[in-house]
Amino acid sequence: MTKLLEWVFGVLVLGVAWAILSFDLLDLRLPQTYQEVAWPMPLYLLVSFGCYSLATVGYRVATFNDCEEAAVELQEQIKEAKEDLRKKGLKI
Amino acid sequence: MASRRATRRSQEDGDKYSVLLPTYNERENLPLIVWLLVKYFEESEFNYEIIVIDDGSPDGTLEVAQQLQQLYGEDKIVLRPRAKKLGLGTAYIHGIKHATGNFIIIMDADLSHHPKFIPELIAKQKEGNYDLVSSTRYRGNGGVYGWDLRRKLISRGANFVTQVLLRPGTSDLTGSFRLYKKEVLESLIERCVSKGYVFQMEMIIRARQLNYSIGEVPISFVDRVYGESKLGGNEIISFIKGLLTLFATT
């Protein structure tokens, strides 16, 4: 199953469950609280996911390692390499 | 001490590492990357060869490659040039054809991927007998130098979306500094159809599908190119297209 199909399937299953609970489609006569909780769930989950995404990406950007020493080391090695290669006769 | 034992073991194992270096206008960087590769391979005593695949660079990259071949020997520097700029996937295929190693290392020739990490990739591979070892800029002490906030945001954002949609199991999908078992790379290239960034992503996704084992090693990525070629709208759009294609077809 492709990822797209997995998502479509998942959304369908959740969607059907939500519709059954919110609109009492199967005449289950469940307590009122089930309906009250189920009804706003899609919006609630969407907003929660949005917040989670922002927080996660924000955190990852903030903690993204800046490799200063790697850049410095590379510069030094470039100098060393150029010297060595020149000595060995390379025409750059 | 431990590294000496490991290298002696590898020589007995008969492992050989072929580094594929596709180049286009890398006249300045090629000698430097080769010098660094030779340095770290000689130090770690692993058996290696460097395969330069130049796509008809107008700046004379091939000439420099030939000089390097004179300097280091034809067994260490192998030239597999092509007439013009063709795709990365075909460059790999072209390079692998005459590779004598049982492991292939792919990397960029612009010094953003530092050869000092190659012994680490090799060690990781041996640790778990991984089919492929990928580098990551996003985990452990991996990181980047030379990116501003905008670039970091795009990178992390794109990676997040990729993780949510594809759930690949590795932290850095667009990275192209990797170590593969030769037969694994061959079987993956056969199956991949995308280009550019997305090609690298597709390799990992297909590897997962085929149940190959994947190891990860944090690396530092020194971007000296970013200043000149900013990540433009076109690249972003083709990335999204590629991502959605992978989402819908794998």
Commentary on this structure:
- Chain A is mainly alpha-helical.
- Chain A is built from 4 helices and no strands.
- Chain A starts with a helix and ends in a 5-residue tail after the last helix.
- In chain B, strand 1 (16-23), helix 2 (29-44) and strand 2 form a beta-alpha-beta unit.
- In chain B, helix 8 runs parallel beside helix 9 (233-249).
- The chains are: A mainly alpha (92), B alpha/beta (250).
- Chain A binds chain B through residues 2-4, 53, 56-57, 60-61, 64-68, 70-71, 74, 77-78, 81-82, 84-85, 88-92, and chain B through 28, 31-32, 35-36, 64, 67-68, 71, 111, 114, 137-138, 141-147, 149, 152-153, 155-157, 159-160, 164-167, 220-222, 246-250.
Task: Detail the topology: elements first, then pairings.
The complex is a heterodimer of chains A (92) and B (250).
Chain A (H helix, E strand, L loop, with lengths): L2 H21 L8 H7 L2 H22 L5 H20 L5
Helix pairs in contact in A: 1-2
Chain B lengths: L1 H12 L2 E8 L5 H16 L2 E8 L6 H12 L4 E3 L8 H10 L5 E4 L11 H11 L3 E5 L6 E3 L3 H18 L11 E4 H10 L4 H14 L4 E5 L1 E3 L10 H17 L1
Parallel strand pairs in B: 1-2, 1-4, 2-3, 5-8, 6-9
Antiparallel strand pairs in B: 4-7, 5-7
Helix pairs in contact in B: 8-9
